[in-house]
Amino acid sequence: MQKENNEVKEVHEKKFHKENKDNRENRKKLLEEKVRPVFQNHVITYRGSYSNTINSAKNSSSSIQVEREIDLMTNINVYGAAIWNNSGYDIGMDNHQYSLFRLKPSLINTSDYWLRNIENGYFLRVAMTGFSGNYSASLKNGVRPRFLIG
């Protein structure tokens, strides 16, 4: 039991990157190391639209199509609306609130965790208090990965 508690603590105390950048390889490695052992070959690959450019206002300004197996949620997936500026590049499976949060909103604020969105050059997070804001990626927060199983 102690080992499991340490693993949960490790996931919930991660920084995106000490220099405030989205280090996607570290994030992917962290998520896959925690999910794959449980779901093995049941994780399904999906294609999604991801922001890949930030404009002078420090908001997403274009996107690319990428195949993924695991990722972080967006503010729309959690709250059902663009709580912060939404550039319009969160489309496809990212354009609606997940039923889990719509049916039981108290599950939104169970811990501090990162979202995938970028706002004013910072990453969005959900706080345990219910507040959502943009923060430096060097701040320690948890991650709540999203993935499809089948």
Give a description of the structure:
The protein is 24% helix and 31% strand. By secondary structure, it is α+β, with helices and mostly antiparallel strands. The radius of gyration is 15 Å and the shape is globular.
Radius of gyration, whole Å? 15 Å
N-to-C span: 28 Å
Shape: globular
Could you give the order of the helices and strands? Answer: HHEEEEHHEEEEE
| Average pLDDT figure | 75
Q: Figure out the total of helices.
A: 4
Helix content: 10-25%
Oligomer: single chain
Given helix and strand content, the structural type is: alpha+beta
Q: Briefly, what is this?
A:
The chain is α+β, with helices and mostly antiparallel strands. Helices cover 24% and strands 31% of the residues.
